[in-house]
Amino acid sequence: ANAAPLLQVKDLRAWYNESQALHGMNFDVRPGELVTLIGRNGAGKSTTLRSIMGIVRKRTGSICYEDEELIGKRTFQIARKGIAYCPEERAIFSLLNVGENLTLPPVLRQGGVPDSELLKQFPNLRERRKSRGTLLSGGEQQMLAIARILRTGSQFLLLDEPSEGLAPVVVKEIGQLILRLKAQGYTILLVEQNLQFARLVADRHIVIEHGAVVDTLSAEELVSDMGRVKNYLGV
Ligand code: ATP
């Protein structure tokens, strides 16, 4: 638990045109950790992921990954370092079938899941491999969106609300998938509104308000001190 951070974010500020969304974020993620970003709508959780990935480009401060500065780098350069991003809207190609969606991302680094293995690791998707993206359920789309990035060889996964809009039983399946990825050694930064889900999977929770970190809770604290969290989220 005391390993040097894999990702170190310092005084991160980010803007959409003239509108500032992040106001000095500070946090880090250690290798193999599973950390959630929690907070109200509009707090800046998605913007944090998009800033790390270089999708929001107007940003200052420091985002250090494996001792390399990501600020100033473009998304394709950041992807080549082994960071992958799963957006909230999942971005499945609706006219392509499951197999085609899976093998679309480029292999960027060694250590990616080979094509021959991908469908073996996702039996539900194997059954649907000929189905077009549009015909998949929300849960299947989310599985596919996560499975797809494993091909690239990325070891650091940015997942934006994988549980969103899914039935409880499907949320559980996604939770099991994420825990499996953690067991396989992936490091994961997860945006999550669903606290029941967050507490099932994460080691640590970072609370964001108005584009800044206001608190950090261990997995145990999220359970024992739910009042503290509900206070932030206004639930
Ligand atoms: P949500 O779960 O609602 O997406 P969030 O915590 O992820 O919440 P962000 O989406 O990061 O919040 O939004 C942070 C702030 O940036 C908000 O004030 C939001 O209105 C603004 N914002 C987000 N996306 C854009 C955009 N494309 N253009 C302009 N402003 C944006």
From TrEMBL:
InterPro entries, alphabetized: AAA+_ATPase, ABC_transporter-like_ATP-bd, ABC_transporter-like_CS, BCAA_Transport_ATP-bd_LivF, P-loop_NTPase
Q: Name one GO biological process term.
A: L-amino acid transport
Q: PROSITE patterns given for it?
A: ABC_TRANSPORTER_1, ABC_TRANSPORTER_2
Q: Name one GO molecular function term.
A: branched-chain amino acid transmembrane transporter activity
Alphabetical keyword list:
Amino-acid transport, ATP-binding, Nucleotide-binding, Transport
SUPFAM superfamilies the record matches: P-loop containing nucleoside triphosphate hydrolases
Q: Does the keyword Cell inner membrane apply?
A: no
* Presence of keyword ATP-binding: yes
Any Pfam family: ABC_tran
Residue span(s) of domain ABC transporter? 7-235
Family membership: Belongs to the ABC transporter superfamily.
Q: What is this protein called?
A: ABC transporter ATP-binding protein
Q: What is the organism field in this record? A: Flavimaribacter sediminis
